Amino acid sequence: xxxxxxxxxxxxxxxxxxxxxxxxxxxxxxxxxxxxxxxxxxxxxxxxxxxxxxxxxxxxxxxxxxxxxxxxxxxxxxxxxxxxxxxxxxxxxxxxxxxxxxxxxxxxxxxxxxxxxxxxxxxxxxxxxxxxxxxxxxxxxxxxxxxxxxxxxxxxxxxxxxxxxxxxxxxxxxxxxxxxxxxxxxxxxxxxxxxxxxxxxxxxxxxxxxxxxxxxxx
Length: 218
Ligand code: SF4
Ligand code: SF4
Known about the structure:
Elements (H helix, E strand, L loop, with lengths): L1 E5 L2 H8 L4 E7 L2 H4 L5 H17 L5 E7 L5 H4 L9 E5 L2 H10 L4 E3 L1 E11 L2 E6 L15 H4 L25 H11 L16 H4 L14
Parallel strand pairs: 2-3, 2-4, 4-5
Antiparallel strand pairs: 1-6, 6-7
The structure holds iron/sulfur cluster (2 copies).
One iron/sulfur cluster (SF4) binds next to α6.
């Protein structure tokens, strides 16, 4: 799922307080599961913003609503936005972008979109994928170097690894994890194969993907 987290309130307040009527819109899919953009989080943030703005002596009308998904136009069509002069989205970047393209009022992000991740426990996520457009997990024992290596290098480890830890100190070295997993699977020799450089054109050349277009390769 897309993993998101709420921006600090000190960052959100200046974005919206020059408006008079701001509708907070949650997203009932990934953002809700990440405990950042569901009904409860929308209500809580609306209340915090009411408090913050009343302390500043300003009066902003904050409303609260939740869409099933912000990244699909059919759900955005259900939004009654006529009364509002701005939207504060508690969805991922895709939700903010689609809301902004569909509505004639400004849309602001209340969340930061972090990565595609797997659940590790309640509200705990492992970054697994950065949507690079050309998956190499078949060569790396299911561990993504683009996402889990601090430098995103395709052939590691680099000289910064120490006792299996990345020089950043905040993570295991992805390439040590890859080697260990390949060895567990009985293919440590696969580690010696050189991977080609990452082809970033796959991601940057096609901003719109039509999955129904079967005439040619995307
Ligand atoms: S190689 Fe690319 S598509 Fe595959 S998991 Fe990593 S970032 Fe995602
Ligand atoms: S130590 Fe490992 S995870 Fe850190 S940058 Fe180097 S190869 Fe990547």
